[in-house]
Automatic annotation (TrEMBL):
Protein's job: Catalyzes the ATP-dependent phosphorylation of sn-l,2-diacylglycerol (DAG) to phosphatidic acid. Involved in the recycling of diacylglycerol produced as a by-product during membrane-derived oligosaccharide (MDO) biosynthesis.
UniProt-recorded name of the protein: Diacylglycerol kinase
Cofactor or coenzyme needed: Mg(2+)
Keyword DNA-binding attributed: no
Family: Belongs to the bacterial diacylglycerol kinase family.
Locations listed in the record: Cell inner membrane
EC number assigned by the record: 2.7.1.107
Superkingdom, natural source: Bacteria
Length: 121
């Protein structure tokens, strides 16, 4: 058992919620890409409610938008950890950051593909 593990039960859920909100605030304050994705979600999610699509299709339209936010949070976390370890240029650091960026590229591509298939298909 890790000595860094904290509370259990409701106290743990309460603490975890606070940490999650702090992470969202940090991402919003410090990451322009996250703010841009929030703006994109503020446009696309309400727009998904306008189209005449099935509930499942609407769920997919919304899910891919939220997934891009999740991927950006992971990407930002990877970048923060790499920078925390060292700001020195290193091939493994570059690869880690590039892979996080590639994951976000795939997530954004997924938004375009899913929206196109549902709305044009």
């Amino acid at each position: 058992m890790s000595p860094y593990k904290g509370q259990v039960g409701f106290k743990r859920v309460f603490n975890a919620t606070g940490y999650s909100l702090a992470g969202l605030r940090a991402a919003f304050r410090g990451e322009a890409a996250f703010r841009q994705l929030v703006l994109l979600n503020l446009v696309l999610i309400p727009l998904s409610l306008v189209f005449s699509v099935s509930r499942g299709e609407r769920a997919m339209l919304i899910a891919v938008c939220l997934l891009a936010l999740i991927v950006e949070l992971f990407n930002s976390a990877i970048e923060a950890v790499v920078d925390r370890i060292s700001l020195e240029r290193h091939p493994l650091s570059r690869d880690a950051k590039d892979m996080g960026s590639a994951a976000q590229f795939v997530a954004l591509t997924m938004i375009a593909v899913v929206w196109a298939l549902i709305l044009l298909g």
